[in-house]
From TrEMBL:
This is Putative MFS transporter, AGZA family, xanthine/uracil permease. It comes from Halopenitus malekzadehii. Keywords: Membrane, Transmembrane, Transmembrane helix, Transport. GO terms for cellular component: endomembrane system; plasma membrane. It is a multi-pass membrane protein. It is found in: Endomembrane system. InterPro entries: Azg-like, NCS2.
Length: 463
Protein backbone atom coordinates (compact mmCIF):
# COMPACT_ATOMS: atom_id res chain seq x y z
CA UNK A 1 0.00 0.00 0.00
CA UNK A 2 1.26 3.47 -0.87
CA UNK A 3 1.38 6.15 1.84
CA UNK A 4 -1.78 7.80 0.43
CA UNK A 5 -3.68 4.51 0.38
CA UNK A 6 -2.62 3.79 3.95
CA UNK A 7 -3.68 7.26 5.07
CA UNK A 8 -7.07 6.87 3.41
CA UNK A 9 -7.66 3.27 4.54
CA UNK A 10 -7.06 4.04 8.21
CA UNK A 11 -8.47 7.58 7.95
CA UNK A 12 -5.49 8.94 9.86
CA UNK A 13 -6.48 12.58 9.58
CA UNK A 14 -9.90 11.99 11.15
CA UNK A 15 -8.23 10.24 14.10
CA UNK A 16 -5.82 13.14 14.60
CA UNK A 17 -2.73 11.17 13.65
CA UNK A 18 -0.35 10.63 10.73
CA UNK A 19 1.87 7.94 9.24
CA UNK A 20 5.08 8.77 11.18
CA UNK A 21 3.13 8.88 14.45
CA UNK A 22 1.55 5.48 13.83
CA UNK A 23 4.90 3.95 12.92
CA UNK A 24 6.50 5.36 16.05
CA UNK A 25 3.59 4.18 18.20
CA UNK A 26 3.87 0.67 16.77
CA UNK A 27 7.61 0.58 17.46
CA UNK A 28 7.01 1.82 21.00
CA UNK A 29 4.38 -0.84 21.74
CA UNK A 30 6.61 -3.53 20.27
CA UNK A 31 9.53 -2.50 22.45
CA UNK A 32 7.41 -2.63 25.59
CA UNK A 33 5.75 -5.99 24.90
CA UNK A 34 8.46 -7.83 22.95
CA UNK A 35 9.67 -9.41 26.19
CA UNK A 36 6.81 -11.89 25.84
CA UNK A 37 8.62 -13.49 22.90
CA UNK A 38 11.26 -14.68 25.35
CA UNK A 39 9.31 -14.85 28.61
CA UNK A 40 6.30 -16.84 27.38
CA UNK A 41 8.39 -19.74 26.02
CA UNK A 42 10.43 -19.87 29.20
CA UNK A 43 7.30 -20.08 31.37
CA UNK A 44 5.44 -22.57 29.19
CA UNK A 45 8.52 -24.79 28.85
CA UNK A 46 8.00 -25.68 32.51
CA UNK A 47 4.83 -27.49 31.42
CA UNK A 48 5.49 -28.35 27.77
CA UNK A 49 8.36 -30.55 26.64
CA UNK A 50 8.72 -31.55 23.00
CA UNK A 51 12.49 -31.97 22.89
CA UNK A 52 15.68 -29.91 23.01
CA UNK A 53 14.17 -27.06 20.94
CA UNK A 54 11.10 -26.60 23.11
CA UNK A 55 11.81 -23.00 24.05
CA UNK A 56 12.56 -22.01 20.45
CA UNK A 57 9.40 -23.70 19.15
CA UNK A 58 7.30 -21.98 21.79
CA UNK A 59 8.84 -18.66 20.77
CA UNK A 60 7.79 -19.25 17.18
CA UNK A 61 4.18 -20.15 18.04
CA UNK A 62 4.04 -17.20 20.45
CA UNK A 63 4.94 -14.90 17.57
CA UNK A 64 2.57 -16.50 15.08
CA UNK A 65 -0.47 -16.46 17.39
CA UNK A 66 0.25 -12.84 18.29
CA UNK A 67 0.45 -11.86 14.62
CA UNK A 68 -2.87 -13.58 13.86
CA UNK A 69 -4.60 -11.62 16.62
CA UNK A 70 -3.01 -8.30 15.65
CA UNK A 71 -4.00 -8.68 12.00
CA UNK A 72 -7.62 -8.82 13.14
CA UNK A 73 -7.06 -5.92 15.54
CA UNK A 74 -5.42 -3.80 12.85
CA UNK A 75 -7.42 -4.60 9.73
CA UNK A 76 -10.85 -5.32 11.23
CA UNK A 77 -11.06 -3.50 14.57
CA UNK A 78 -8.81 -0.64 13.38
CA UNK A 79 -7.45 -0.04 16.88
CA UNK A 80 -3.85 0.55 18.04
CA UNK A 81 -3.61 -2.36 20.47
CA UNK A 82 -1.10 -5.20 20.54
CA UNK A 83 -1.96 -8.76 21.51
CA UNK A 84 0.07 -11.76 22.64
CA UNK A 85 -0.17 -14.71 25.05
CA UNK A 86 -1.04 -13.14 28.39
CA UNK A 87 1.18 -13.01 31.42
CA UNK A 88 -0.59 -14.65 34.35
CA UNK A 89 -2.61 -16.83 32.00
CA UNK A 90 0.56 -18.62 30.92
CA UNK A 91 1.50 -19.04 34.58
CA UNK A 92 -1.93 -20.52 35.30
CA UNK A 93 -1.35 -22.89 32.37
CA UNK A 94 1.70 -24.20 34.22
CA UNK A 95 -0.28 -24.44 37.47
CA UNK A 96 -2.93 -26.53 35.75
CA UNK A 97 -0.36 -29.01 34.45
CA UNK A 98 1.11 -29.17 37.93
CA UNK A 99 -2.26 -30.42 39.14
CA UNK A 100 -1.95 -33.45 36.90
CA UNK A 101 -3.60 -32.11 33.73
CA UNK A 102 -1.62 -33.03 30.61
CA UNK A 103 -0.31 -30.01 28.71
CA UNK A 104 -2.16 -31.14 25.61
CA UNK A 105 -5.40 -31.13 27.57
CA UNK A 106 -4.59 -27.64 28.82
CA UNK A 107 -4.14 -26.54 25.19
CA UNK A 108 -7.50 -28.12 24.40
CA UNK A 109 -9.02 -25.97 27.16
CA UNK A 110 -7.42 -22.89 25.61
CA UNK A 111 -8.88 -23.85 22.24
CA UNK A 112 -12.38 -24.36 23.68
CA UNK A 113 -12.11 -21.02 25.48
CA UNK A 114 -11.21 -19.35 22.18
CA UNK A 115 -14.14 -20.95 20.37
CA UNK A 116 -16.53 -19.87 23.15
CA UNK A 117 -15.18 -16.33 22.91
CA UNK A 118 -15.67 -16.38 19.14
CA UNK A 119 -19.29 -17.47 19.48
CA UNK A 120 -20.11 -15.01 22.26
CA UNK A 121 -18.40 -12.19 20.40
CA UNK A 122 -20.24 -12.87 17.15
CA UNK A 123 -23.63 -12.72 18.89
CA UNK A 124 -22.58 -9.61 20.84
CA UNK A 125 -22.78 -11.21 24.30
CA UNK A 126 -19.26 -10.20 25.40
CA UNK A 127 -19.73 -6.59 24.38
CA UNK A 128 -23.12 -6.52 26.11
CA UNK A 129 -21.65 -7.70 29.41
CA UNK A 130 -18.74 -5.26 29.23
CA UNK A 131 -21.02 -2.28 28.52
CA UNK A 132 -22.97 -3.18 31.66
CA UNK A 133 -19.92 -2.64 33.88
CA UNK A 134 -20.83 0.00 36.50
CA UNK A 135 -19.51 3.49 35.71
CA UNK A 136 -17.19 3.74 38.75
CA UNK A 137 -15.58 0.44 37.76
CA UNK A 138 -15.03 1.65 34.20
CA UNK A 139 -13.48 4.92 35.36
CA UNK A 140 -11.15 3.22 37.83
CA UNK A 141 -9.84 0.47 35.58
CA UNK A 142 -7.27 2.67 33.85
CA UNK A 143 -5.78 3.93 37.13
CA UNK A 144 -5.68 0.42 38.60
CA UNK A 145 -3.88 -0.89 35.54
CA UNK A 146 -1.50 2.07 35.72
CA UNK A 147 -0.44 1.30 39.28
CA UNK A 148 -0.18 -2.39 38.38
CA UNK A 149 2.12 -1.45 35.49
CA UNK A 150 4.26 0.76 37.72
CA UNK A 151 4.78 -1.99 40.30
CA UNK A 152 5.59 -4.53 37.59
CA UNK A 153 8.10 -2.19 35.99
CA UNK A 154 9.77 -1.13 39.23
CA UNK A 155 10.14 -4.75 40.33
CA UNK A 156 11.65 -5.84 37.05
CA UNK A 157 14.07 -2.91 37.24
CA UNK A 158 15.00 -3.90 40.81
CA UNK A 159 14.08 -0.52 42.22
CA UNK A 160 11.57 -2.18 44.55
CA UNK A 161 11.29 -5.74 45.79
CA UNK A 162 8.51 -8.26 45.30
CA UNK A 163 7.06 -7.04 48.61
CA UNK A 164 6.88 -3.52 47.08
CA UNK A 165 9.53 -2.27 49.51
CA UNK A 166 12.40 -0.13 48.30
CA UNK A 167 15.36 -2.27 47.31
CA UNK A 168 17.70 -1.86 50.32
CA UNK A 169 20.70 -2.10 47.98
CA UNK A 170 19.39 0.29 45.35
CA UNK A 171 22.40 2.61 45.51
CA UNK A 172 24.78 -0.33 44.95
CA UNK A 173 22.76 -2.17 42.34
CA UNK A 174 23.78 -1.03 38.82
CA UNK A 175 20.53 -2.39 37.34
CA UNK A 176 18.43 -0.25 39.69
CA UNK A 177 20.68 2.78 39.21
CA UNK A 178 20.58 2.56 35.40
CA UNK A 179 16.82 2.00 35.46
CA UNK A 180 16.33 5.07 37.66
CA UNK A 181 18.46 7.14 35.29
CA UNK A 182 16.43 5.80 32.37
CA UNK A 183 13.11 6.70 34.00
CA UNK A 184 14.20 10.23 34.88
CA UNK A 185 15.73 10.74 31.44
CA UNK A 186 12.51 9.60 29.76
CA UNK A 187 10.40 11.91 31.90
CA UNK A 188 12.76 14.77 31.04
CA UNK A 189 12.33 14.07 27.33
CA UNK A 190 8.57 13.90 27.77
CA UNK A 191 8.55 17.22 29.66
CA UNK A 192 10.46 18.79 26.77
CA UNK A 193 7.81 17.52 24.36
CA UNK A 194 10.27 15.38 22.41
CA UNK A 195 8.56 12.86 20.12
CA UNK A 196 9.56 9.27 20.70
CA UNK A 197 10.57 9.97 24.30
CA UNK A 198 9.75 6.44 25.42
CA UNK A 199 11.64 4.75 22.58
CA UNK A 200 14.64 7.03 23.13
CA UNK A 201 14.49 6.34 26.86
CA UNK A 202 14.47 2.55 26.41
CA UNK A 203 17.23 2.65 23.80
CA UNK A 204 19.43 4.96 25.84
CA UNK A 205 19.01 2.81 28.93
CA UNK A 206 20.02 -0.27 26.97
CA UNK A 207 23.07 1.43 25.49
CA UNK A 208 24.16 2.65 28.93
CA UNK A 209 23.85 -0.91 30.21
CA UNK A 210 26.33 -2.11 27.58
CA UNK A 211 28.69 0.75 28.34
CA UNK A 212 28.63 0.04 32.08
CA UNK A 213 29.06 -3.67 31.43
CA UNK A 214 32.07 -2.98 29.18
CA UNK A 215 33.63 -1.02 32.04
CA UNK A 216 33.59 -4.17 34.11
CA UNK A 217 30.69 -3.36 36.40
CA UNK A 218 28.92 -6.53 37.46
CA UNK A 219 25.27 -6.77 38.50
CA UNK A 220 24.54 -7.15 42.16
CA UNK A 221 23.52 -10.69 43.05
CA UNK A 222 20.88 -10.45 45.76
CA UNK A 223 19.88 -13.31 48.00
CA UNK A 224 16.35 -14.67 47.92
CA UNK A 225 15.44 -12.73 51.03
CA UNK A 226 15.66 -9.49 49.08
CA UNK A 227 12.77 -10.68 46.99
CA UNK A 228 13.85 -8.80 43.88
CA UNK A 229 12.28 -10.02 40.67
CA UNK A 230 14.15 -10.00 37.36
CA UNK A 231 17.31 -11.36 35.84
CA UNK A 232 20.36 -9.69 37.42
CA UNK A 233 22.09 -8.83 34.15
CA UNK A 234 23.18 -5.58 32.54
CA UNK A 235 23.96 -6.45 28.95
CA UNK A 236 23.84 -10.12 27.95
CA UNK A 237 26.03 -11.24 25.08
CA UNK A 238 24.93 -13.10 21.97
CA UNK A 239 28.12 -14.93 21.00
CA UNK A 240 26.92 -18.29 22.29
CA UNK A 241 23.47 -18.13 20.76
CA UNK A 242 22.74 -20.62 17.99
CA UNK A 243 19.49 -21.03 16.12
CA UNK A 244 19.15 -23.95 13.70
CA UNK A 245 16.40 -24.75 11.22
CA UNK A 246 14.97 -27.31 13.67
CA UNK A 247 13.76 -24.45 15.83
CA UNK A 248 11.18 -23.58 13.18
CA UNK A 249 9.66 -27.06 12.92
CA UNK A 250 6.61 -26.52 15.09
CA UNK A 251 4.85 -29.73 14.07
CA UNK A 252 5.27 -31.25 17.59
CA UNK A 253 3.10 -28.41 18.92
CA UNK A 254 0.63 -27.75 16.10
CA UNK A 255 -2.54 -29.76 16.63
CA UNK A 256 -1.33 -31.23 19.91
CA UNK A 257 -4.54 -29.95 21.49
CA UNK A 258 -6.47 -32.66 19.62
CA UNK A 259 -4.71 -35.32 21.68
CA UNK A 260 -5.77 -33.39 24.76
CA UNK A 261 -9.40 -34.37 24.21
CA UNK A 262 -8.56 -38.00 24.82
CA UNK A 263 -9.17 -39.37 28.31
CA UNK A 264 -10.48 -36.00 29.54
CA UNK A 265 -11.96 -35.92 33.04
CA UNK A 266 -15.08 -33.83 32.41
CA UNK A 267 -15.28 -31.87 35.67
CA UNK A 268 -11.59 -31.00 35.81
CA UNK A 269 -11.58 -29.99 32.15
CA UNK A 270 -14.67 -27.80 32.60
CA UNK A 271 -13.03 -26.19 35.62
CA UNK A 272 -9.89 -25.36 33.65
CA UNK A 273 -11.90 -23.91 30.77
CA UNK A 274 -14.02 -21.86 33.19
CA UNK A 275 -10.96 -20.38 34.90
CA UNK A 276 -9.23 -19.50 31.62
CA UNK A 277 -12.51 -18.03 30.38
CA UNK A 278 -13.26 -15.92 33.45
CA UNK A 279 -9.79 -14.47 33.91
CA UNK A 280 -9.34 -13.66 30.22
CA UNK A 281 -12.83 -12.20 29.93
CA UNK A 282 -12.33 -9.60 32.62
CA UNK A 283 -8.65 -9.03 31.87
CA UNK A 284 -9.62 -8.14 28.30
CA UNK A 285 -12.60 -6.08 29.41
CA UNK A 286 -10.48 -4.05 31.81
CA UNK A 287 -7.58 -3.66 29.41
CA UNK A 288 -9.74 -2.54 26.48
CA UNK A 289 -11.62 -0.08 28.67
CA UNK A 290 -8.41 1.34 30.12
CA UNK A 291 -6.69 1.57 26.75
CA UNK A 292 -9.76 3.11 25.15
CA UNK A 293 -9.80 5.79 27.84
CA UNK A 294 -6.08 6.45 27.41
CA UNK A 295 -6.54 6.83 23.66
CA UNK A 296 -9.60 9.05 24.02
CA UNK A 297 -11.68 6.57 22.02
CA UNK A 298 -14.45 5.89 24.55
CA UNK A 299 -17.91 7.43 24.35
CA UNK A 300 -19.70 9.55 26.95
CA UNK A 301 -20.61 6.39 28.89
CA UNK A 302 -17.00 5.28 29.11
CA UNK A 303 -17.49 2.44 26.61
CA UNK A 304 -15.27 1.63 23.65
CA UNK A 305 -17.50 1.80 20.55
CA UNK A 306 -17.89 -1.42 18.55
CA UNK A 307 -16.06 -3.37 21.22
CA UNK A 308 -17.04 -6.61 19.53
CA UNK A 309 -14.32 -5.95 16.95
CA UNK A 310 -11.30 -5.86 19.31
CA UNK A 311 -12.88 -8.69 21.30
CA UNK A 312 -12.92 -10.76 18.11
CA UNK A 313 -9.17 -10.17 17.76
CA UNK A 314 -8.40 -11.75 21.11
CA UNK A 315 -10.86 -14.57 20.42
CA UNK A 316 -9.14 -15.37 17.12
CA UNK A 317 -5.71 -15.12 18.74
CA UNK A 318 -6.69 -17.48 21.56
CA UNK A 319 -8.17 -20.03 19.15
CA UNK A 320 -5.12 -19.91 16.90
CA UNK A 321 -2.86 -20.08 19.97
CA UNK A 322 -4.59 -23.22 21.19
CA UNK A 323 -4.15 -24.81 17.76
CA UNK A 324 -0.49 -23.82 17.42
CA UNK A 325 0.47 -24.67 20.99
CA UNK A 326 0.51 -21.65 23.29
CA UNK A 327 -1.61 -20.22 26.09
CA UNK A 328 -4.42 -17.67 25.91
CA UNK A 329 -3.83 -14.59 23.73
CA UNK A 330 -5.10 -11.29 25.08
CA UNK A 331 -4.85 -7.53 24.56
CA UNK A 332 -1.73 -6.10 26.17
CA UNK A 333 -1.81 -3.25 28.66
CA UNK A 334 1.64 -2.32 27.34
CA UNK A 335 -0.21 -1.00 24.27
CA UNK A 336 -0.72 2.13 26.34
CA UNK A 337 2.91 2.99 25.58
CA UNK A 338 2.11 3.26 21.88
CA UNK A 339 -1.11 5.09 22.62
CA UNK A 340 0.84 7.65 24.64
CA UNK A 341 3.01 8.23 21.55
CA UNK A 342 -0.10 9.08 19.53
CA UNK A 343 -1.14 5.72 18.07
CA UNK A 344 -4.85 5.86 17.28
CA UNK A 345 -5.56 3.43 14.42
CA UNK A 346 -5.11 -0.18 13.42
CA UNK A 347 -1.94 0.81 11.59
CA UNK A 348 -0.17 0.83 14.95
CA UNK A 349 -1.25 -2.78 15.55
CA UNK A 350 -0.07 -3.77 12.08
CA UNK A 351 3.34 -2.23 12.73
CA UNK A 352 3.60 -4.27 15.93
CA UNK A 353 2.58 -7.40 13.99
CA UNK A 354 5.20 -6.67 11.32
CA UNK A 355 7.90 -6.29 13.97
CA UNK A 356 6.81 -9.56 15.59
CA UNK A 357 7.11 -11.18 12.16
CA UNK A 358 10.61 -9.75 11.69
CA UNK A 359 11.58 -11.10 15.10
CA UNK A 360 11.12 -14.64 13.80
CA UNK A 361 14.54 -14.32 12.19
CA UNK A 362 16.22 -12.98 15.32
CA UNK A 363 14.35 -14.58 18.21
CA UNK A 364 17.53 -15.46 20.13
CA UNK A 365 18.97 -11.98 19.59
CA UNK A 366 16.10 -10.46 21.56
CA UNK A 367 17.77 -11.85 24.65
CA UNK A 368 20.59 -9.37 23.99
CA UNK A 369 18.28 -6.51 25.04
CA UNK A 370 19.00 -5.75 28.70
CA UNK A 371 15.91 -7.33 30.29
CA UNK A 372 15.15 -4.37 32.54
CA UNK A 373 15.35 -1.65 29.87
CA UNK A 374 11.84 -1.98 28.31
CA UNK A 375 10.25 -1.63 31.74
CA UNK A 376 11.21 2.04 31.81
CA UNK A 377 8.19 2.59 29.58
CA UNK A 378 5.78 0.99 32.06
CA UNK A 379 6.55 3.52 34.79
CA UNK A 380 6.16 6.45 32.41
CA UNK A 381 2.90 5.11 30.99
CA UNK A 382 1.57 4.39 34.49
CA UNK A 383 1.63 8.10 35.25
CA UNK A 384 -0.42 8.82 32.13
CA UNK A 385 -3.02 6.23 33.10
CA UNK A 386 -3.80 7.87 36.44
CA UNK A 387 -5.61 10.74 34.74
CA UNK A 388 -9.11 9.23 34.95
CA UNK A 389 -9.05 9.28 38.75
CA UNK A 390 -10.34 12.86 38.59
CA UNK A 391 -13.48 11.64 36.79
CA UNK A 392 -14.56 9.55 39.79
CA UNK A 393 -17.02 11.15 42.23
CA UNK A 394 -15.09 10.48 45.43
CA UNK A 395 -17.73 12.26 47.52
CA UNK A 396 -20.27 9.59 46.58
CA UNK A 397 -19.65 6.32 48.43
CA UNK A 398 -21.56 4.39 45.75
CA UNK A 399 -18.83 5.45 43.33
CA UNK A 400 -15.90 5.72 45.74
CA UNK A 401 -16.15 2.22 47.24
CA UNK A 402 -16.14 0.13 44.03
CA UNK A 403 -13.70 2.51 42.32
CA UNK A 404 -11.31 2.48 45.25
CA UNK A 405 -11.46 -1.30 45.59
CA UNK A 406 -10.90 -1.77 41.85
CA UNK A 407 -7.85 0.49 41.90
CA UNK A 408 -6.34 -1.06 45.04
CA UNK A 409 -7.01 -4.74 44.43
CA UNK A 410 -5.45 -4.82 40.96
CA UNK A 411 -1.89 -3.92 41.99
CA UNK A 412 -2.09 -5.54 45.43
CA UNK A 413 -3.03 -8.92 43.97
CA UNK A 414 -1.17 -8.44 40.69
CA UNK A 415 -4.33 -9.41 38.82
CA UNK A 416 -6.53 -7.11 36.71
CA UNK A 417 -9.56 -9.39 36.83
CA UNK A 418 -9.48 -9.55 40.65
CA UNK A 419 -9.69 -5.76 40.81
CA UNK A 420 -12.63 -5.66 38.44
CA UNK A 421 -14.31 -8.46 40.39
CA UNK A 422 -13.94 -6.43 43.60
CA UNK A 423 -15.65 -3.49 41.95
CA UNK A 424 -18.42 -5.64 40.51
CA UNK A 425 -19.08 -7.30 43.86
CA UNK A 426 -19.18 -4.09 45.87
CA UNK A 427 -21.20 -1.85 43.53
CA UNK A 428 -24.69 -3.44 43.81
CA UNK A 429 -24.25 -4.04 47.55
CA UNK A 430 -23.17 -0.48 48.37
CA UNK A 431 -25.71 1.09 46.01
CA UNK A 432 -28.56 -0.92 47.51
CA UNK A 433 -27.41 -0.17 51.06
CA UNK A 434 -27.40 3.54 50.19
CA UNK A 435 -31.05 3.33 49.15
CA UNK A 436 -30.26 3.59 45.45
CA UNK A 437 -31.24 0.13 44.34
CA UNK A 438 -33.01 1.62 41.34
CA UNK A 439 -29.58 2.40 39.88
CA UNK A 440 -28.58 -1.25 40.00
CA UNK A 441 -29.30 -3.21 36.83
CA UNK A 442 -30.22 -6.88 37.28
CA UNK A 443 -27.12 -7.66 35.25
CA UNK A 444 -25.00 -6.02 37.98
CA UNK A 445 -26.25 -8.63 40.43
CA UNK A 446 -25.63 -11.36 37.83
CA UNK A 447 -22.04 -10.16 37.38
CA UNK A 448 -21.55 -10.08 41.15
CA UNK A 449 -22.82 -13.65 41.45
CA UNK A 450 -20.52 -14.69 38.58
CA UNK A 451 -17.58 -13.25 40.52
CA UNK A 452 -18.59 -15.18 43.64
CA UNK A 453 -18.89 -18.37 41.58
CA UNK A 454 -15.46 -17.82 40.08
CA UNK A 455 -13.74 -17.28 43.42
CA UNK A 456 -15.51 -20.28 44.94
CA UNK A 457 -14.45 -22.50 42.06
CA UNK A 458 -10.95 -21.04 41.76
CA UNK A 459 -9.98 -21.07 45.43
CA UNK A 460 -12.44 -23.51 46.92
CA UNK A 461 -11.86 -26.38 44.50
CA UNK A 462 -8.14 -25.91 43.81
CA UNK A 463 -7.18 -25.07 47.38
Amino acid sequence: MTPNLITDYFDLEARGTDLPTELLAGLTTFLTMSYIIVVNPVILSEAIDVGPNTVELLAVVTILSSIAAMLVMGLYADLPFGLAPGMGLNAYFVVVTGLGVDWRTALAAVFIEGVLFLLLTVVGAREFVITLLPEPVKLSVSAGIGIFLAILGLEQMRIITATTSLNPSIALDPVAVLATVGILFTFALWARGIRGAIVIGITTTGVLAYVVSALGVQPLILDEGAGVIGAPVLAPGVSEITYGAAAYDITPLVGAFLEGFQNVEAFTFALVVFTFFFVDFFDTAGTLTGLGQAAGLTDESGNLPEMDKPLLADAVGTTVGGILGTSTVTTYIESSAGVSEGGRTGLTALVVAALFLCSLAVVPLLSAIPPFAPYVALVVVAVLMLQNITEIDWDDVVHAAPAGLTIMIMPLTGNISYGIAAGLLSYPIVATAAGRGDEVHPAHWALALACIAYFWVRFGTFA
